[in-house]
Amino acid sequence: MAQKNRLPDGGRIDRTKPVRFQFNGKRYDGFSGDTLAAALLANGVSLVGRSFKYHRPRGIMTAGSEEPNALVQLGTGARTEPNIRATQAELFDGLSADSQNCWPSVGFDIGAINSVMSKYLPAGFYYKTFMWPASLWMTYEHVIRNAAGLGKGPTESDPDRYAQHHTACDVLIVGGGPSGLAAALAAGRSGARTILVDEQSEFGGWLLTDDTEIDGMAPTDWVANTVKELAGLDNVTLLPRTTVSAYFDHNFLTAAQRVTDHLGPQENTKTPRQRFWKIRAKQVVLAQGSLERPIVFADNDRPGVMLAGALRTYINRYGVLPGREIVVFTNNDSAYRTAIDAKNAGAVVHLVDLRPDPDNPVVHQARQAGIQIHEGSAVVGIKGAKSIHGVEIAPLSEDGKSLAGPTFVVSASLVAMSSGWNPSVHLFSQSRGKLRFDDALTTFVPDHTPQKTRSAGACNGTFTLAGCLAEGMEAGAAAAKDAGFDSAIAGPSHVVKEDAPGSMRQVWTVPTVHPLGKGTRKHFLDHQNDVTAADVHLAAREGYLSVEHLKRYTTTGMGTDQGKTSNVNALAIMSEIRSASIPEVGTTTFRPPYTPTTYGAMAGQGVQELFEQYRGTAMHDWHVNNGAVFEDVGDWKRARYYPKPGEDMDEAVRRECKQARETVGIMDASTLGKIDIQGPDAAKLLNMVYTNAWSALKPGRARYGLMLNEHGMVFDDGVTTCIGENHYHMTTTTGGAARVLNWLEEWLQTEWPDMEVYCTSVTEEWAVATLSGPKAREVMEAVAPKMALDPQTFPFMAMQEGEVAGLPARVFRISFTGDLSYEINVPARYGMALWEALMEAGRPHGIVPYGTETMHVLRAEKGFIIVGQDSDGTVTPYDLDMDWIVSKKKDDFLGKRSLTRTDTARPGRKQLVGLLTEDPNFVLPEGAHLVKEVKPKPPMDTIGHVTSSYFSPNAGRSIALALVKDGLNLKGSSFQVPLMSGHVETVTITDTIFFDKEGERARG
Amino acid sequence: MSKYSIFSLIRNAGSYHENWQRAWRSPDPQPEYEVVIIGGGGHGLATAYYLAKECGIRRVAVIEKGWLGGGNTGRNTTIVRSNYLLDESAGIYEHSVKLWEGLSQELNFNVMFSQRGLLHLAHNVHDMQEIGRRGNAIWLNGIDSEFLTPEQVKEMVPLMNINGRYPVLGALLQRRGGTARHDAVAWGYARAADALGVDIIQNCEVTGFDIKNGVVQGVRTTRGDIKAKRVGVVTAGHSTVMADMAGFRMPLESLPLQAMVSEPIKPCIDTVIMSNAVHVYVSQSDKGELVVGAGTDAYISYAQRGGFDMMEHIMGPLVELFPFTSRLRMLRQWGGIVDVTVDRSPILSKTPVEGLYFNCGWGTGGFKCTPGSGHVFAHSIANGEMHPIAAPFSIDRFNTGALIDEAAAAAVAH
């Protein structure tokens, strides 16, 4: 299909590379180097999308990342992406895009009923209605939700890969226009590690649009020379297609690089689709340029109304003249260049200038070019809805509030507007920089920032090319110098012939034939969210005067463009209403990111199989190969049980429990937290963090300890062993390992810096196999012939170092099952060898591997607690009936003071007890509650809850542990446990030991 | 106050919306009030409203140093629920949810309270034990509570990945939980309170207290001294600063909490989903944005912004639980300052200064309790005795040890 608006020559597109694409199912041609927006305009497509609220037909307003209107659904299937700005999407062969937020089509959209009803739907209308009847709100909301949203999210997993990249540099330069390029030259030549970032596909910025010569060269030639020089410097990194999205403290900035988006879907490649950069810069130069302001005039949203600078870009950079009859509407000189270029490209151009007597050289040039200039006039209306076919013009009164003469209509299909330029202060503001309002420029400019950053060029309010080049050079040199490159110099200044910018005339709301808000014409501020000047008046009338209230009430600036084209206009209109200056009205906080950033890129490689990789023990593969079912404990995978063919969990656990008590069981206990503690103050530390006394513990002996937090509540437990003088081996719960180490370090570093003691996590240094059961010693004898295993030499709660299965080992005689147990620790690399040797040696004795579930049952049979299951951070040692472990003699330990607080020391707290169900086969669900009295329905007063509950094959019945108010005094009493299912179980409170009450077995 | 309704909208459309009244006046402060509330966030405005509405105290001023709802009221992820473990928590949060139900009608301002259900996911045995205990506790407190199987979860949220690194083993559902429109809550209370005669004074910063013999006499502000025998401080992240002015310390730490939204998309997630093990929570706003949050930043700060590492730590979990979000884009990220107590439960309390009441320490979960907190705090100030629902949340508990340690006990993020 012919590209009817494509100029015969010119532009930076590659006419030798035609590109085919689809929009709304229709096929079009464009060229390599086009954006989707440029190609659509080239093909005469002006209607691109529909707005958020009123579903007004919309076209293309800008040529960059500030676009509020031309959002499309790009691609299909798993790779579909909503809300892509057509002005940024680079064209590739096979690109397919669709209009969004419209049905059945962008041309005929049922949702446009909202536009007809718009009279009833002013800002914030939804706060005033949909309240009756109350029961219908969810129905109303359903409709609202479906009407809202823009594009559609994908429903499948993302097939593409992303990467993160960390880097540091001396000078980071954001923006590759004239200022940024000049800064990069100065910084790069000094030898400083320089990164130059630009969001567009090529460097140059405004120089790709403008024709002002630099040093006698065409600007694009200057850009090419500069980029060539920079590319030749090893210390300079050039990052086009990269958006610096956020500016954090300490000069830490993040940037999203679009690596393959411009190429289309990439199959079978390892190249990431986007790369997320995390940059720590010694110095930053912000050179992001400026964004043109739209004029707020009647029906300024019609497809075909665009920013004057954008039109110039389409003409000069893309070789597209989107209309043959053009009205340029401006309050400043810059749009005259657009008018002249449009005229030279063959358009009939009318210039409508708000200023009554513009007379700068460019005005004369325009006149000489044959452009008709309507001075002191304004565009007051647009003919046409889905496209423009005429423009209404009228002279303005002196105060700009009313029309000073009759309107007349000129034939036109395009309006290019300019109300001046706003420096891009977004990143500066994110750096915690303070803004200053510049009255001459009528906009905010950077003032000061606590960070090591400089603004240069248009983003600093400098709007001449010579000024941008000079400021860029100076900023680049100064940044390099401050980064330690003393030789950095600003370099020779550039010769640029240009006119000084002329005056501006601000008319923040251009009047039309009817008063604002009356009649059908609308003055849009925020095009995407359909916020009009009348909405600002309404907000002010209702008292939403603060700029944040204005934003939140009207939703101005809250679209996907975050108000890049609307914020200053909204502030200005509010300031007029309030008769306050714009800085008095204030500005909202600029929040990251600068433009929306892909979640996948921020997540980087840390997704799917690389999302929180699991930790496995040295014996993990054995468990896998022997059919273990695993459970997640923290990030560990632990073997939960080892079902035999046909067994379910209950059956497997019953078998493991029985056999472990009858012969010998083996468990992988490697995940238990292990901390190596050394130093002259090691015992002192233990005395402070545990409730019991540690001073007397001899080498080779182990002791069980409870740790309390500051509130006196049990926080972790474990066995710690004295390895030698000033040397201890602490064990913690699996889940608590990191927490305990942090706890020790926090106290050592903040409160006890005088203690000389060093804590090292050695969890992963040791592989641990636990042998437990009556035959454990026989197995040990087989694998550790050189060890003294008789109970006299190697008693309960002792440790000895030696050889097990020919491996260097520490063997601990400690027990979590209540049976004779050996916890055998070997360096992790020998873990599998140890395990296999133990299995081999155990086979004659009927050894059974058991998992965490059996461990839980066996320990519950003995009433051993699991911190975090039987205690919950609100439980003291006394609540656990473990008074014996709280030293009465020690002066202090963590939590001691709190134990004496009135509530903590009061009787009747929830205490740990055993429970026996009336039906011995009924296993209570964990988390079920005991009540004082069962009622037909809740609420019911509870007195406690079940913390652990199992069927115990060794006790031959179900057993449970529970925390019950005053439970230690209620032994023998019966209570009821109502369940959601309706079942009520009667339970009797008992002590917590259900097996081997005398505790002889562990001593072996 | 002229009533909002579909009819008033139609009527006002006829006069080009030029006759709408101000939602609240902008009065100058009077020299004296019966009660001064410091802090024009949701909790403070709600307190003023209930003082005027239910306690017969209309000479009330709300003093706000910035703009109404500019603190955590306008920065949170708008989740409302009452599925708390401990009786004290269940008491106040359920009281609040009951007030939420009907709040739009009560205030004649649509706060868009949407009971679209709230899921707490369980990803491991420990999580299952936790929801087991909490689900039963909630149920026995007479609050709605349901256990779901992974299949039921998948049915409710088809786009969720239930077989990821930490598979979904079950979930606890509160159907009456959901979200509300945060700004509207502040505005609705402000408008309704104003209509009852409450003076709402914005851009007025409290610079000190007038305290004689341990009794509060009034407050000093940037707009002059204001006398009041009863003063309620409801200043969230700045409560420590206010307590310092009054001469005592509040057991609080102020931490940054971040949240973020995606670009708006068509409806894809209908419920609120919270996962501790994967560590992210997500809902979709009526506008279509995915609202995403997780834990607080690690350091203490009064800055209303956070660091990147927390944002990054939200992304992996988000994409893990909802793989389709990988191609969506983050639109905006922001931070608030949350005031956190050691037991992560709030403080509603008298103080060492007679007549001076504090309502703070809501940490990361105060929004949901806006109506309930305001309601019981108003009654407490009016009666000079803490309301029974508020009583357990006294600062005395940090001395007695009667902590309401929801964090330790339930280990669930607010």
UniProtKB/TrEMBL annotation, chain A:
<dbReference type="InterPro" id="IPR013977">
    <property type="entry name" value="GcvT_C"/>
</dbReference>
<dbReference type="Pfam" id="PF13510">
    <property type="entry name" value="Fer2_4"/>
</dbReference>
<dbReference type="Pfam" id="PF07992">
    <property type="entry name" value="Pyr_redox_2"/>
</dbReference>
<dbReference type="InterPro" id="IPR042204">
    <property type="entry name" value="2Fe-2S-bd_N"/>
</dbReference>
<feature type="domain" description="Aminomethyltransferase C-terminal">
    <location>
        <begin position="910"/>
        <end position="996"/>
    </location>
</feature>
<dbReference type="Pfam" id="PF08669">
    <property type="entry name" value="GCV_T_C"/>
</dbReference>
<comment type="similarity">
    <text>Belongs to the GcvT family.</text>
</comment>
<dbReference type="InterPro" id="IPR006277">
    <property type="entry name" value="Sarcosine_oxidase_asu"/>
</dbReference>
<feature type="domain" description="FAD/NAD(P)-binding">
    <location>
        <begin position="170"/>
        <end position="446"/>
    </location>
</feature>
<feature type="domain" description="SoxA A3">
    <location>
        <begin position="521"/>
        <end position="604"/>
    </location>
</feature>
<dbReference type="Pfam" id="PF01571">
    <property type="entry name" value="GCV_T"/>
</dbReference>
<dbReference type="InterPro" id="IPR006222">
    <property type="entry name" value="GCVT_N"/>
</dbReference>
<protein>
    <submittedName>
        <fullName>Sarcosine oxidase subunit alpha family protein</fullName>
    </submittedName>
</protein>
<dbReference type="Pfam" id="PF17806">
    <property type="entry name" value="SO_alpha_A3"/>
</dbReference>
<keyword id="KW-0560">Oxidoreductase</keyword>
<dbReference type="InterPro" id="IPR027266">
    <property type="entry name" value="TrmE/GcvT-like"/>
</dbReference>
<dbReference type="InterPro" id="IPR041117">
    <property type="entry name" value="SoxA_A3"/>
</dbReference>
<dbReference type="InterPro" id="IPR036188">
    <property type="entry name" value="FAD/NAD-bd_sf"/>
</dbReference>
<dbReference type="GO" id="GO:0008115">
    <property type="term" value="F:sarcosine oxidase activity"/>
</dbReference>
<dbReference type="InterPro" id="IPR041854">
    <property type="entry name" value="BFD-like_2Fe2S-bd_dom_sf"/>
</dbReference>
<dbReference type="InterPro" id="IPR023753">
    <property type="entry name" value="FAD/NAD-binding_dom"/>
</dbReference>
<feature type="domain" description="GCVT N-terminal">
    <location>
        <begin position="619"/>
        <end position="890"/>
    </location>
</feature>
UniProtKB/TrEMBL annotation, chain B:
<dbReference type="InterPro" id="IPR001763">
    <property type="entry name" value="Rhodanese-like_dom"/>
</dbReference>
<protein>
    <recommendedName>
        <fullName>Sarcosine oxidase subunit beta</fullName>
        <ecNumber>1.5.3.24</ecNumber>
    </recommendedName>
</protein>
<dbReference type="InterPro" id="IPR006278">
    <property type="entry name" value="SoxB"/>
</dbReference>
<keyword id="KW-0560">Oxidoreductase</keyword>
<keyword id="KW-0288">FMN</keyword>
<dbReference type="GO" id="GO:0008115">
    <property type="term" value="F:sarcosine oxidase activity"/>
</dbReference>
<keyword id="KW-0274">FAD</keyword>
<dbReference type="GO" id="GO:0005737">
    <property type="term" value="C:cytoplasm"/>
</dbReference>
<keyword id="KW-0285">Flavoprotein</keyword>
<dbReference type="InterPro" id="IPR006076">
    <property type="entry name" value="FAD-dep_OxRdtase"/>
</dbReference>
<dbReference type="Pfam" id="PF01266">
    <property type="entry name" value="DAO"/>
</dbReference>
<dbReference type="GO" id="GO:0000166">
    <property type="term" value="F:nucleotide binding"/>
</dbReference>
<dbReference type="InterPro" id="IPR036188">
    <property type="entry name" value="FAD/NAD-bd_sf"/>
</dbReference>
<comment type="similarity">
    <text>Belongs to the SoxB family.</text>
</comment>
<keyword id="KW-0547">Nucleotide-binding</keyword>
<dbReference type="GO" id="GO:0046653">
    <property type="term" value="P:tetrahydrofolate metabolic process"/>
</dbReference>
<feature type="domain" description="Rhodanese">
    <location>
        <begin position="34"/>
        <end position="79"/>
    </location>
</feature>
<keyword id="KW-0963">Cytoplasm</keyword>
